[in-house]
Amino acid sequence: MDVLLSILAILFILIGIVGCVLPILPGQFLAYVGFVCCYFCSYAQIPTRLLWIYLALIVVVSILDFILPAYFTKLSGGSKAGERGATAGLIVGMLLGSIVGAIVGPFFGAIAGELLKDSSDVGRAVKSGFGSFLSFIVGTGMKLFLSMLMLFKVCGEVFPAIGNWFSNIF
């Protein structure tokens, strides 16, 4: 059973890492499923509190991933119309189910929102769009970082030599 759980753990985490970039897959949740698979292996020494910590971090990062487009749009000089446009673009982009939709949706949504409010200030609209693009980069980075932490921990549990190597380096 340990062999099956170990294979599933690594497989789920690797698919989860891909899912952190592709919006059609719930990346960090899949990585967490892999982490839980490793937890149930008889040889694993993962404390239960670490399961709860990662779960809490995943929930926080997921919430931030939905809030960031509007926040970064505002931070880059966008108005409420740009924030609403970025949020609407994110929803439309996710419904399209592609990486391109998730990236360009908030970008063009923020631009459209700003242009609907004031069509004379194209520069501000584009700046607002770049703010929403920056939010995609930051959100994806947070998800990848968290998933990679789980991958390193699982690899250290499944392959003790790798775990010893990591502990000697860091």
Summary of the model, kept short:
The chain has 170 residues and is mainly alpha-helical. Helix content is 85%, strand content 0%. The chain has one domain (2-169).
Descriptive report:
With 170 residues, the chain is mainly alpha-helical. The chain has one domain (2-169). It has seven helices and no strands. The longest helix is centred in the C-terminal third of the chain and has 37 residues, at 122-158. It starts with a helix and ends with a helix. The mean pLDDT is 84.
Observed structural traits:
elongated, mainly alpha, 7 helices, 170 residues
| Helix share bin | over 70%
- Tell me the Rg in angstroms: 19 Å
In total, how many beta strands? 0
Instruction: Indicate the overall shape.
Output: elongated
Total helix count?
A: 7
Biggest sheet, open or closed, and with what strands and sense? none
Order of helices and strands: HHHHHHH
Total discrete domains: 1
What average pLDDT do the residues reach? 84
- Outline the low-pLDDT stretches: none
Strand content: under 5%
Rounded to the nearest angstrom, the distance between the terminal CA atoms is: 31 Å
Computed structural class: mainly alpha
SSE order and pairing:
Layout: H1 2-21, H2 27-39, H3 48-75, H4 80-96, H5 99-117, H6 122-158, H7 160-169
Helix pairs in contact: 1-2, 1-6, 2-3, 2-6, 3-4, 3-6, 4-5, 5-6, 6-7
